[in-house]
Amino acid sequence: MSSITFSARQVSDAAKASTQCAILPVFKGEKLSNAARQLDAANAGAISAALKLGDFTGKAGQALMLPGAGSAKRLLLIGCGELKKFDRGAARDACQKIYSSLNGSAAKDATLHLSGVQIKDGDHAWLLSHLARHLVSASYRYTETVSKPKPPFRLGKLVVNTAGEIPTAAAKKALEQGRCMGLGVNQACELANLPGNICTPTYLAQQARKLGRGNGKLSVSILDEKKMKELSMGSLLSVSAGSDQPAKLIVMDYKGGKSGQKPHVLVGKGITFDSGGISLKPGAKMDEMKFDMGGAASVFGTVRAITEMALPLNVVAIVAAAENMPSGSATKPGDVVTSMSGKTIEILNTDAEGRLVLCDALTYAERYKPQAVIDVATLTGACVVALGSHATGLYANKDELADQLLAAGTETHDRAWRMPLWDDYQKQIKSNFADLANIGGPGGGSITAACFLARFAEKYPWAHLDIAGSAWNSAPKGATGRPVPLLTRYLMDRAGK
Length: 497
Fold this sequence. Notes:
Layout: E1 5-9, E2 22-26, H1 34-42, H2 46-53, E3 63-69, E4 72-79, H3 88-103, E5 109-113, H4 124-138, E6 157-161, H5 168-193, H6 201-212, E7 218-223, H7 225-230, H8 234-240, E8 248-255, E9 264-274, H9 294-309, E10 314-324, E11 336-338, E12 344-346, H10 354-364, E13 372-377, H11 381-387, E14 392-396, H12 399-412, E15 416-418, E16 436-437, H13 445-454, E17 462-466, E18 472-474, E19 477-479, H14 484-494
Parallel strand pairs: 1-6, 2-4, 2-5, 5-6, 9-10, 9-13, 12-16, 13-17, 14-15
Antiparallel strand pairs: 3-4, 7-8, 8-10, 11-12, 14-17, 18-19
Helix pairs in contact: 3-4, 4-5, 5-9, 8-10, 9-14, 10-13, 12-14
């Protein structure tokens, strides 16, 4: 996990700011900023000379490292393109260029000079929050099971010279929010990247206890299979029936708000490995089914982010953790199980297991009398077909909740797309032998999965995020940490932050 620290101050003379690397945004066709002019004068006009030679023009995507000037040991010029076209997309690209340039240097600290930077569709607070989040998340390295991990990101400290563009206090707040969000993304990535022989339901329970240790606002409780049987969670337990790994229902209760304030509830699908069960998956890419607990990982990551921020609101995070394996004791196609709600379910396909663990968790959430419940799951391949990897599928039974989540996704560039939840699709999950079936045929697979979950979320505002396409990448292989930014921003908005 990253140990980068962030701070902000206003510096009158950039040449006098002691740093291993001064970062200077440069816009194509524009005069140098005040900070760049100050450092240029201290370096015998090296910046101006580079521009004159055409080695560096300020074009978007360019970067140039020059020898130091004044109290700066290095000068890093970042091309930002045309000032009139510098929007959030261009700013994100510039942040990526800052990271890649620093990652190739030995600089352990750096100073970003904000002088002259303006964003068409955003403000400096957004820019600094995104930069901090990006530097922290980009610095993540997976090390658990490799003998020679990638070299760590050397940068340990970033100072922002606000240059009068943003109040120092506001800059510090934005940087801290971005740092916390980045830590949450890294938490999610680490859990999702772990192999299934390490990251079991029991391991997730241990990590929850670790997260709660020393935090007086976060309490953790673990329901074992005995307790789940007492609560009649027959649907969840049907998924773990074929595995030697016992299922766990993990509850993380964060009380950052007022006593009696209704909580926001997050529910994560935690299938630590999904073989498909008796409805066995094809062998190709089955290794990626360790990522089937991406929903749970994002819930862990969000809890990490909001506790780091100490958000003033109440949040309950529920993780339904199980391993889906074939064996003589495994649930079979055609079996009928009874959920905690009392509804019976005909299991037509044991590979549609995520909804089986989630439905009992959604029923369990009722006891908290929630303001809203959001479940997060790598639920369906159909969602990948529909939306690819760029957007998370969003379903909701309340327009206001859907709009809030869509706005949070847009703000963080962790975007979602609302899908239909029409009653017309409900007839696809009818069963002749139970109250409903766990699959609805080949058409509209992501929608019918959401319709299934909706049957268990009728007593509160509810949204479902299908992250099957956005939770991990296949090339290069690894977790993305999504939708931690979306969820964290949503909760920040509810907390007025």
